[in-house]
Design goal:
The protein has five helices and four strands; from the N terminus they run αααββββαα. The protein has 198 residues and is mostly helical. The two termini are 32 Å apart. The chain binds zinc ion (ZN).
Length: 198
C-alpha cells in the first residue's frame, strides 16, 4: 500500500467510524424520545432534563452528519489513478514549495514528486495532496493608511493555492500601500502562480 492508497484507506475508515457514531447518536435520540413520551410533563424537572439531553444529542447528530457528508464527498472525489498522475515524480527532486519561494529539492520517494518529509500530506478541506507553503494577502485599514499584509504560513493543495492567489489579487485590487512588513517583492511572490501551475 503506497501513500495514496493509505490516504484512501484512511478516508474509508473515517467514513466508517463517523457513520457509526452518527447512527449511535440517532439511536440514543430514539430512546430518549420514547422516554420523554412516558414522562408526565407536570414532572417538570424530569421532563426538562430528558428534553435537554435529547436536544444535546440532536446537536451532535447534526454535526456528525455534516462530517459524514464531508468525508463522503472527499472519498467520492479521491481517484487513486488521478492522484498518482498528479503526484508523479518530475525530476527526482522534491517539488514542495517552500516559504522562501523555492522548492524543497530533497530526493523523491515512492515514485512521487515528494521527499520523505513531504509525501503523504493531505489537505483537510480537499482530497488533494499538499504541494507546499504559501501566504494569503489582505489589506489592513489603519489611521496611517491601507497597507498590504500577509497571513501566517498556509499549507495548500493545488486548488487551495489557486483560490488563495485569486483571493489575494481580489483583496489587493481595492488599493493598498506597501511598507517593510510586506514589501512589493513579497506581494509579487504571493500573487504569482508557480510556473508549472500557470
Ligand atoms: Zn520535500
Amino acid at each position: 500500500m503506497d501513500y495514496i492508497e493509505r490516504e484512501r484507506r484512511r478516508l474509508e475508515i473515517d467514513l466508517h467510524v463517523l457513520t457509526r457514531r452518527w447512527h449511535g447518536t440517532l439511536s440514543r435520540m430514539f430512546v430518549l424520545r420514547g422516554r420523554l413520551d412516558g414522562i408526565d410533563p407536570t414532572d417538570v424537572e424530569a421532563f426538562s432534563r430528558t428534553a435537554n439531553a435529547l436536544g444535546a444529542f440532536a446537536n451532535d447528530a447534526t454535526s456528525l452528519k455534516r462530517d459524514v457528508d464531508k468525508v463522503r464527498r472527499r472519498l467520492a472525489s479521491f481517484d487513486v489513478d488521478a492522484q498518482r498522475r498528479a503526484n508523479a515524480d518530475v525530476d527526482g527532486s522534491c517539488r514542495y514549495l517552500t516559504i522562501d519561494g523555492g522548492r524543497c529539492g530533497r530526493p523523491t520517494v515512492g515514485g512521487s514528486r515528494w521527499c520523505g518529509r513531504h509525501v503523504g500530506l493531505w489537505s483537510d478541506n480537499m482530497a488533494e495532496h499538499i504541494i507546499g507553503e504559501w501566504r494569503a494577502l489582505y489589506v489592513e485599514h489603519g489611521p496611517d493608511g491601507d497597507f498590504a499584509r500577509s497571513t501566517h504560513v498556509l499549507r495548500v493543495g493545488v486548488s487551495e493555492l489557486r483560490a488563495t492567489v485569486d483571493e489575494s489579487r481580489r483583496e489587493l485590487a481595492q488599493g493598498y500601500e506597501t511598507d517593510d512588513l510586506c514589501p512589493s517583492a513579497e506581494i509579487e511572490c504571493w500573487t504569482t502562480l508557480p510556473e508549472d501551475l500557470t
